[in-house]
Design a protein that fits this description.
Largest sheet: 9 strands, mixed
Number of strands: 27
Low-confidence stretches: 1-12, 530-536
Helix content: 25-40%
Mean pLDDT: 90
Shape: globular
Oligomer: single chain
Structural class: alpha+beta
């Protein structure tokens, strides 16, 4: 026997020390001729199946020492007590673990290449994957167990799992999160959620097959991104020597297939939108879209409701859920004829169809009425309601959508939002009775839009005109507006049959589970806490230096500090934010602070502020300024005019903020004391 391992310490506190201990044990295994990562392994049964043997009366394996089986799994825990040891091993079928019992008198080999009882203590760690052979019986306490007669290592674990993980570290180290398999208050672990999402897609595929749909795959790279209002990711295709976009929708290629002669197609595929994230939105996610010829959106409502209700029942085991805000949502036939007649709603089963303008009024309790208003009138209404970032240049569709979202937060039970104005849907067919509206529905519930369907537009001239409006909005600065896609219009010109189309995403799963959508993704993209280049992480800070003299009132100092930091945020944008939001246990979303420290310091003369500005700019740091002229007027044009009429020495500086690497900023501002 190699005696070195008997002198190894049992544990160290630091991660690196623990890892080194495991590496040392790995080397001992190798020196003894034991491959810690063998090619071959054996498993006669999955652990859940073995555990089920103990529920059967007089199973032939139980208690028969001549009937040996081989099991494999990961060591969850081990406990040694004199001449006996216990270990729990797990596999995917039984994450709670199955008990292995090791006895000194059953594991007495002295061969170098055979692991014995002593090796369990000195060479085996939690996290190792073992293959154990033995017979089945109950322990003295009645626990179903395998009494081990031989064992070997299948994979040596070099990194121990953390003792606990917070909400962000779980996404940064998803492998550890899945291994720990910690349950939430609803009894769901990360592995459970991923399986539920797989079930979700399985249901869709089964329902599509029932209706005769063909599953297809379309390109992810596009020369013109289309099918949605979203900002695309860009890339460069070397072979073709041209800029390309990652698709923002599955729609247009699928509809081209309908134009090409297919009659019912769908794709479940990844799409990419270079936008902000939220508990319900990610930049990369999976979507299903389907299109079927000779159907309209009325048929799509019946089919969609059937699929949604099956999904809810099979994922939740009930037709009710509790949403992010603690409201109960009834996915069953919640609306009866009396309620529908009172509100002048039509029903699809127990789900109402609510026209767009009626819904805006109803769910805002009459406070928002967008019907018949001009773009200017809509902008004024939005501003009066405190809706930010309203610009007529962005077009009517964007303003209408912002106003609807203001009302949408009050929705609860599912309904079909129908007949939106044509400005909102450049790809949907006009309603014959009301040509200014389109035959589109959205499934809306719990303040969220959870799927959308059209009677698809197949008039190429009308389509070209709507694309032109979208392109004009894009040219005016609306990055979310759709591109002009002449190739798609040309496809329509060959002739495209009437059809219904629908799309929804994996977000529906996170909504049903009241989870942040990152919880439902195997490996969500999150900002790394440190770079991966091997260099030390740069620590960035912002120091706001405020003029502190007797003639500057306190409100002005606070005003200066607020404007300086707001200006920094506007210039540096989302990259200042490491975590976008946190979500409380009862579903409330809290926007997070920027990841960098902001210090407030004071200066006694404006000359000091001017000198700081020049020195920081010379070092190419980010600089923002606040002046008396900015305080006196909210008109940027006036401030610009006033300041451009002065020399620098005559501008009344009230504060300067410097942002950059910590050492540089601290060196520049070391003369200024902290604000008391």
């Amino acid at each position: 026997m190699n005696a070195d391992h008997n002198q190894l310490p049992i544990s160290f506190s630091s991660l690196e020390a623990q890892r080194q201990l495991r590496v040392d044990r790995l080397e001992i295994l190798k020196k003894r001729g034991i491959d810690p990562y063998p090619v071959s392994s054996k498993r006669d049964y999955r652990l859940a199946e073995v555990k089920s043997f103990f529920t059967q009366e007089q199973h032939p394996f139980i208690g028969d020492t001549t009937q040996t089986i081989t099991l494999s799994g990961r060591v969850k825990s081990k406990r040694l007590s004199g001449k006996i040891a216990f270990a729990q091993i797990e596999d995917e079928s039984l994450p709670t673990g199955f008990q292995c019992i090791f006895k000194l008198d059953m594991l007495t080999s002295t061969e170098e290449k055979v692991l014995n009882f002593s090796d369990l203590k000195t060479l085996i760690d939690e996290g190792d994957y073992l293959q154990v052979t033995g017979y089945l019986d109950r322990s003295q306490t009645g626990e179903p167990s395998i009494f081990v007669t031989a064992y070997t290592v299948l994979a040596k674990s070099l990194r121990p799992l953390p003792e606990k993980m917070d909400s962000e570290s779980r996404f940064l180290d998803r492998v550890a999160d899945f291994k720990m398999n910690s349950k939430d208050e609803k009894g769901l672990a990360g592995r459970d959620i991923i399986r539920m999402k797989a079930k979700y897609w399985q249901i869709w595929r089964e329902e599509m097959a029932k209706e005769g749909f063909l599953e297809v795959e379309c390109p992810i790279f596009e020369s013109v991104p289309g099918g949605a209002e979203a900002k695309p990711f860009t890339t460069f295709y070397n072979e073709l020597d041209q800029d390309m976009y990652l698709r923002i929708s599955l729609e247009l290629p699928l509809k081209k297939l309908i134009a090409g002669g297919f009659e019912a197609v769908y794709e479940i595929g990844r799409i990419f939108r270079n936008e902000g994230s939220s508990p319900q939105h990610l930049q990369e996610y999976t979507q299903i879209e389907w299109y079927i010829a000779y159907k309209d959106y009325a048929w799509a409502m019946i089919f969609t409701k059937r699929v949604y209700q099956r999904i809810v029942q099979e994922l939740l085991g009930t037709m009710t859920q509790v949403d992010y805000h603690g409201h109960e949502i009834n996915w069953g036939e919640w609306c009866d004829e009396t309620e529908a007649k009172k509100n002048n709603w039509e029903l699809v089963g127990g789900w109402p169809k609510i026209p767009y303008f009626d819904a805006v009024r109803y769910f805002s309790q009459g406070a928002i009425d967008t019907e018949g208003k001009s773009l200017e009138g809509l902008c004024n209404l939005a501003k009066s309601l405190g809706i930010e970032d309203i610009d007529p240049k962005h077009g009517m569709a964007t303003v209408l959508d912002k106003l609807w979202k203001k009302a949408r937060v009050n929705t609860t039970h599912p309904f079909f939002l129908i007949l939106p104005p044509v400005e909102l849907e450049p790809l949907a067919k006009r309603d014959p009775a009301k040509p200014h509206l389109t035959q589109r529905f959205q499934v809306v519930a719990g303040g969220a839009e959870l799927g959308k369907a059209f009677s698809e537009l197949n008039d190429p001239i009308d389509q070209f005109g709507r694309f032109s409006v979208q392109q004009a909005a894009r040219d005016a600065g609306n990055e979310d507006a759709q591109f002009m896609d002449t190739k798609y219009v040309e496809a329509m010109e060959y002739g495209m049959p009437p059809m219904a189309g629908f799309g929804t995403s994996e977000r529906f799963v996170s909504f049903l589970l009241s989870k942040h959508i990152r919880e439902c993704v195997t490996f969500p993209h999150v900002r790394e806490q440190a770079n991966t280049s091997g260099k030390a992480k740069r620590t960035m800070v912002a120091h706001a230096v405020i003029l502190d003299t007797p003639d500057v009132p306190n409100w002005s100092k606070l005003n200066a500090a607020a404007h300086l930091t707001a200006s920094l945020g506007a210039r540096e944008g989302k990259k200042l934010i490491y975590i976008d939001h946190s979500t409380t246990s009862d579903g409330e979303q809290i926007p997070m602070n920027i990841q960098h420290a902001i210090m407030m310091k004071s200066a006694t003369t404006k000359d000091d502020l001017v000198a700081l500005k020049k020195a920081a700019e010379a070092q190419e740091l980010v600089v923002t300024c606040f002046t008396k002229e900015m305080r006196e007027s909210s008109s940027d044009a006036k401030v610009k005019e006033w300041q451009e009429a002065k020399r620098l020495a005559d501008v009344d500086f009230l504060g300067v903020l410097v942002f950059g690497e910590k050492k540089q900023v601290e060196a520049l501002t070391k003369q200024f004391p902290l604000v008391q």
